[in-house]
Amino acid sequence: MASIRTKTELDLDSPTLVEGLPGVGLVGKIATDHLVDAFEMEYVASVDCQNIPRVSVYEADARDVLPPVRLYADEQRDLLALQSDVPLARDTGGEFADCVTEWVADNDATPLYLSGLPMQNLDRSTAPEVFGIASGDAAARLDAHDIDTPPERGLVSGPTGALINRAAESGTDAVGLVVESDPQFPDPAAAKQLIDDAIEPLAGVDVPTEKLVEEAEEIREQKKRLAQRMQEAEENESTQARPMRMFQ
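Structure tokens predicted for PAC2 family protein (248 residues):
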């Protein structure tokens, strides 16, 4: 039975949840992994929803076995992080989105769903653009922090798209954040921009992001294999934002 199994009682007050499912540029995963490491967030729940591969994860120099998709918490900052070490299959039946959305609503959390917008020939002399969409009453949070609206019509695919769709259908407060990113390789610079321009103000936290610049090459190497697996997946299984003109 699909569920999110909490390991410990949580003491959170209307927390913000940052979602880090693998997608284009791995921007969501890089950003969420960085939050977990920077704040030394506590592993609090295993995510056992549909569409998650039945695999086990282990860490270097440790014997513990972890599920591939997990929730971490920082009670002091009222912050949650959804971390995934595997790409997820497309959520055609909505089971995964229903599972996560129900838990989010039960815990009065506002999710920030993250996606990369693949851009060919990115100009690295300028910062990648970040924009936001929202469901429920969450649009006011985007307006309050001057986060841009989309420059053109588009869609978000993959599991993250399913999560945003489910939030909109149920009227749940949720934010979708999109950042221009490298279509082929892990993009720490785009993840940094996502944190600086949107996650920090929306979650009300101060995140040190210098490491994402200083160790960009190392981060790219660490995430390269997962990025290759994402490229090998069918296009509609990969979380990404795309302009609608691609279909017209």
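The chain has one domain: 10-247.
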